[in-house]
Design brief:
four-stranded parallel β-sheet
């Protein structure tokens, strides 16, 4: 039985969509993760835990990978809908390799299993 921490055989491409118009161009059969708008305003660089959890793309990708493995499904690609997020740069940086360091097994598993393919 595989675990979420097993070495990835392939890296799954992730497309981050930042504009509503671009959603029409994505394959509707591809798994889509939707990031939610923060609950309230924050000072620059000071996001509360509740709002951070709504847009933690690494946690969402890890949960998706774990669920797919448990169900015996394979993921061919993932679309991250970041249209509700005011600034998608932090989301993109957390998926792009080598930009935001991985902390803990979850982040390392995501870094090994997924790669940023494109931003629309």
């Amino acid at each position: 039985m595989s675990t979420p921490f097993d070495r990835a055989v392939i890296s799954i491409p992730v497309t981050v969509v930042t504009h509503h118009e671009a959603l029409a161009a994505v394959d509707p059969t591809v798994v889509r993760l939707t990031l939610e708008r923060p609950l309230h305003e924050h000072d620059a660089g000071g996001e509360c835990v509740a709002c951070a959890a709504r847009g933690d793309v690494r946690a969402m990708l890890f949960d998706l990978l774990q669920s797919a493995r448990a169900d015996g499904r394979t993921l061919s690609a993932v679309i991250v809908d970041a249209t509700a997020v005011d600034d998608a740069r932090p989301v993109i940086d957390r998926i792009a390799r080598g930009v935001v360091p991985a902390f803990g097994l979850r982040d390392h598993t995501v870094a090994r299993s997924f790669h940023l393919d494109k931003v629309l």
